[in-house]
Amino acid sequence: MAQPNHRYGGHRDLEAVIDMDQPEKLTAKGGSRFSFTGGLEFTSLTYTVVKKQRGVGGEWEKKDVDLLHEITGYAPKGCVTAVMGPSGAGKSTFLDALAGRISSLDGRVALDGVEMSPSVIKRSSAYVMQDDRLFPMLTVYETLMFAADFRLGSAVSPSDKKLRVDNLIEQLGLTTSRNTYIGDEGTRGVSGGERRRVSIGVDIIHGPALLFLDEPTSGLDSTSAHSVIEKVHDIACAGSTVVLTIHQPSSRILQLLDHLIILARGQLMYSGGPKEVTAHLGRMGRKVPKGENSIEHLLDVIQEYDQSEFGVNALAEFCLTGLKPRKLAAEGLSTVSSIPPTPVGPGGEDFDHSLRSQHSKSPWSGAQFTPSRRPKKDQSGKSHNPPRYGPEIVMGTPTPLSSISVYTVNEADYLSPAQRGSATGAPGVGINALGHRGKFANSYAAEVWVLMRRNFTNIWRTPELFLSRLMVLTVMGFLMATMFTKPKDNTQGITNRLSFFIFTVCVFFFSSNDAVPAFIQERFIFIRETSHNAYRASAYVVAGVITYLPFLLLQSAVYALITWWAIGLHGQFVYFLVMLYASLLSTNSFVVFISSIVPNFILGYAAVIAFTALFFLFCGYFVDSHSIPQGWKWMNTVSTMKYPYEGLLMNEFGGTRSFSSNPPLNGDEILENLTISVHKDRKWWMVLYLLGWAVFYRVLFYLVLRFASKNKRK
């Protein structure tokens, strides 16, 4: 396995400068040519939302608010770019914008000079969420292997997948935890730092060109946080462009950050290297107190301006154009005495012209680097040339993209996709390889098979869910068998049979309610995995149905075998079993659908219980279907308890067999008194209706997953 080239013990020399006017070419192994520049560019990123605010008169007014405003900059290739800022600065929103997760975004995002659409960004990137959404009863190795099956597809052989997973486990420092469960609150597993590294491994298994991480150190202790960022730094050294949000990094973590983007109120405050922050403050006229961290001091300055009458707009203007912000009253005479001289171009150009001319010669076009605002237009539509900067422009102030020259390019930063895959243990997916990949790595059948294997593994490791249901149905079966044994052929016997059937229907419908938390937990994992097209939503739905079929059949069979002969029921045993099976399929589909639309399991429980109670009320047991008021008849139709209840009664009482001698009543007469059809083929229609509702709820479940369960801003 090719090892990443660590510079100075893994830290880059941020002071070295390269000549951007005459970019050299580096020759990597294999003869590939690489330029000095590369990475992620973003130009004029603006994200506007409509918010309701109270006006002067107290009325609610709609107002456009920019959560991101005209942010232009870049994230260098082979470097760790950290997005920082105070709370509410727009860090996560900015990360979502770069990752293609905002649908109504204005601006341009490009990778290595190629403009990227949101769909292409998803295919070429990985996004590690703040929360670790992993299956607790899978081991580290199994988690990464399933990720490899999803992301690499059948084009990579099983042996190669295993090799890449082994290499990735070694690179992430997870060798000792290889066969340890991920764990959760109830199961001891890996540590918090190891769990975060597993989450990163899941998303980089396919060798993405871009890696986004949202607060990767959140909730971790200092040692674990440093370990995570150290591994992220190694990934960047292997050639990926890494962008992460971070809040209050330690001094050790700061040494691993190569490039900073500091935001405040959705505007760019600083873009450049960590060691250039002191000079940036100096050009503002602010000295860094002795012993204080320059980045923390810059954040303090940002907060001071935010609370002043000038706001952070003054700092954003300074970052963008070099226009020095006005002093605050509290600053006094705390200014920098010496200011670097103004850089002059070959033809004596002023600072603005020289700065733009310099980058127009770089491999990235000058239009991509020009840190200017959009030109204002007059009524005729013509643009006005911006005025030359006056003396108040701070000399030598770098714009968001002008500091690109402070980075030394190392050959390891520009590995080819194949070489990057060798270094990271995953096949490289460079921008040039995207055209050879479909939207999904696997065929539909392969996706279903992998999902089924993972489902069966989880069920085998966590049998409590199905064993608890099986135990409930077993206990209830014995209870029913002993309470309603051989009912007599009289009115009391008829009542006992009716009570048995309605109780059976209720038990089967309530038996799936305990699955609500499990489905909600799995839904979050689904959102994470499908955010980068790991598999199709329909494949997930189909795999879930197929997985549950044998377990639901086992539950139905156990209850049917216990009660049928003990009670002495009539009709067809096969129909009794099929109807119980269809009832479980229907209620399981209903619970899954409800779990997909509620935000948490508490509301999920409440919704399932409420709907089940309504279905029970309108099933025809309390009030027959013909006596229900006209305005509520539709509830009788949608009640999925109606069909098993009436179907089981048709199977039991259908025909002319006598069930009472005083008064004399046969089966058909009992059904007629209950306003239930006596046609023999009608009972099988009840099974079809119930299966139709099961399919209907699964389709709704799919639609919610496909169109509503998106980790994407509007």
TrEMBL record:
Region (Disordered): 334-395
Predominant localisation class: membrane
InterPro entries: AAA+_ATPase (IPR003593), ABC2_TM (IPR013525), ABC_transporter-like_ATP-bd (IPR003439), ABC_transporter-like_CS (IPR017871), ABCG_dom (IPR043926), ABCG_transporters (IPR050352), P-loop_NTPase (IPR027417)
GO CC annotation, single: plasma membrane
Coiled coil: none
Gene3D superfamilies on file: P-loop containing nucleotide triphosphate hydrolases (3.40.50.300)
GO MF annotation terms: ABC-type transporter activity; ATP binding; ATP hydrolysis activity; ATPase-coupled transmembrane transporter activity
Biased composition (Polar residues): 360-371
Record's subunit section: Heterodimerizes with STR; the resulting transporter is located in the peri-arbuscular membrane.
Family: Belongs to the ABC transporter superfamily. ABCG family. Stunted arbuscule (STR) subfamily.
Designated name of the protein: ABC transporter G family member STR2
The encoding gene: LOC123440152
